[in-house]
Amino acid sequence: MSTTTAYRADGVTLREVALRDGLQLVKAWPTTSQKLEWLVREHSAGVTHFEVGSFLPANRAPQFADIRELLSCVTSASAIHTSALAMNERGIDEALTTQVSEIACVVSATEAHSHANIRRSRDQSIELVRYAAKRRLESNHGALISVGIAMSFGCSIAGPVQPAEVLKIAEACLSAGADLVGIADTVGFAGPNQVYELSAALHALVGSGRFVVHLHDTRGLGIANASAALDAGCRVLDGSLGGLGGCPFAPGATGNVVFEDLVYLCETKGFRTGIDIDALIDVRRTQLEAMPEERLYGAIARSGVPKNIDWAAGGELRRQ
Amino acid sequence: MSTTTAYRADGVTLREVALRDGLQLVKAWPTTSQKLEWLVREHSAGVTHFEVGSFLPANRAPQFADIRELLSCVTSASAIHTSALAMNERGIDEALTTQVSEIACVVSATEAHSHANIRRSRDQSIELVRYAAKRRLESNHGALISVGIAMSFGCSIAGPVQPAEVLKIAEACLSAGADLVGIADTVGFAGPNQVYELSAALHALVGSGRFVVHLHDTRGLGIANASAALDAGCRVLDGSLGGLGGCPFAPGATGNVVFEDLVYLCETKGFRTGIDIDALIDVRRTQLEAMPEERLYGAIARSGVPKNIDWAAGGELRRQ
């Protein structure tokens, strides 16, 4: 597999990350069969790309303990593109024994966050990317390697982050063997102008199909930020169904940008996603059955898609 | 008063419309003293422009029956810019006997909505604007005249609306004597590209300080649409505190774009609003005391403004 087949350069790719980023901090999580139902129903609605879990030790992150089982069910069954997080050498080695389509690594934009988050320096994190690329070659595995740059728009520990610094890290990751780099607004500090500027710079550096914008909706700017990213040439965006997620250190903060609202945004901007929004909204019921105590977010699930929009005619309103 | 003094051409003006548009459909509303507390507290937080009610017969719209009393208290007390809706000749005549700073008229973008909403044609609505300008001159009143073009981005009855049609109506309103024209996404159909295009065209036609973008957040695109309007040169935007409002024909639909989130958006985009967001958020308590059954919306009230943002340094994050 290569980025050219896994990610379209001529359209937009939306990745649903609720089963990883959305479960990062929850106390209760879906069973493996509930996760599978979730994935299969979303895939039927037209979603193709999912982050499905993390290769962390089960005692540290029990919600991801079924990652191997999940991957073996999903990848043998369908054309679903799966991504899973690997935080260290052990995780990468394990990932390469599975059918995962993409191994996701993380590098922090600031030294302070890097040490607090994973007790490695940024350079050591980039070395991990190099390790992943080397091991992939040795094992002749087809997985892509992606790197998310955490705190790309400002850091809760170190404060401001210069775009030039993020670009330097992105280049280092690509040189180390990453296929894709992502800029993540980990704690929801970004505004649309900031997202536009960094996305445009990254677009100039690596082109459309090779960078991801990963946004959180903490302060209500998630969809505006996504719109700005698309304006700047970004063609790969992350979101979580129902906006699942949050942060234990920020009471009331929401999680990732709401996936179904992101789909609606793309459609209004003329990007055909191939996703049936009504069918997608219906998967929220599976989510709530699996996690009845979680609060879901989102506007399009509440209001519905306008009934008189003619998607086939490019999203124009239809006469009644 | 003229548009040049009432609306800055060199910055952004945000208008809080909850006391009119937000009360349009509610079953219970604040008392006059609660409305005054609301206005005074918001004004203390830095808000300068308010839509405060409507000159409708008290039996049709009892929530606005105190408009004269409200205006006499507010305009004598402060530098608050007040706007109130007038839907017919009687309303305009009454407005001109008060100290209102701005008389707001409405013209529909489509004939079908115009007849359904006010039982007048679009041309007859434009004639009403001409009447307002003539009566203002005769009475030597200093009020501005503004016109909101309802359904500018698509009509719930007639379907698609061509931008050229909206621009033609805007020109006709200005020729008839309006000082400002507004484009309203009355039922929340607009997406950011559509808002950008129409705003840019209107900006080319009339300049920054003479047009308003009035958005609803029905489908979660309100803030993204506001960001697009600002990008296109719009410098006057409406919002309602707590997103107060809604539509009886669209269950679950929210009202105007959330005012406090709009303020935060502007600040992240480098527009200094002069509004203290924390103090503004605190006014939601007054809102809830006055209308305990209303649901309030908004993200920044939930998450708070990032503590480490240095507004004085242009909204940069501050090192901890």
Task: Please give a structural write-up.
2 copies of one chain form a homodimer. Chain A has 320 residues and is of the alpha/beta class. Chain A has one domain (3-317): Alpha-Beta Barrel (TIM Barrel), CATH 3.20.20. Chain A is built from 12 helices and 10 strands. Chain A has helices at 3-6, 32-44, 67-77, 89-95, 111-118, 122-139, 163-175, 192-206, 222-231, 259-268, 277-290, 300-303, and strands at 13-16, 49-54, 81-85, 102-108, 144-150, 180-184, 211-214, 236-239, 309-310, 316-317. In chain A, strands 1-2-3-4-5-6-7-8 form an 8-stranded parallel β-barrel, surrounded by 7 helices. Chain A has a two-stranded antiparallel ribbon with strand order 9-10. The longest helix of chain A has 18 residues, at 122-139. Chain A is globular, with a radius of gyration of 18 Å. The mean pLDDT of chain A is 91. The interface between A and B is large, with 50 and 50 residues.
Summarize the entry for a quick read.
Two copies of one chain form a homodimer. In chain A, 40% of the residues lie in helices and 14% in strands. The first copy, chain A, has 320 residues and is an alpha/beta fold.
Largest β-sheet summary of chain A: 8 strands, parallel, barrel
Largest interface: A-B, 50 and 50 residues
Distance between the termini of chain A: 46 Å
Considering the protein shown, what is the CATH homologous superfamily of chain A?
A: Aldolase class I
The chain-level structural class of chain A is: alpha/beta
Q: Please, what is the average pLDDT of chain A?
A: 91
Low-confidence spans of chain A: none
Assembly form of the protein? homodimer
CATH overall fold name of chain A: TIM Barrel
Residue share in helix of chain A: 25-40%
Strand content of chain A: 5-15%
CATH class of chain A: Alpha Beta
Family (chains A, B): Belongs to the alpha-IPM synthase/homocitrate synthase family. Belongs to the HMG-CoA lyase family.
Keywords (chains A, B): Lyase, Metal-binding, Transferase
GO molecular function (chains A, B): lyase activity
Pfam families (chains A, B): HMGL-like
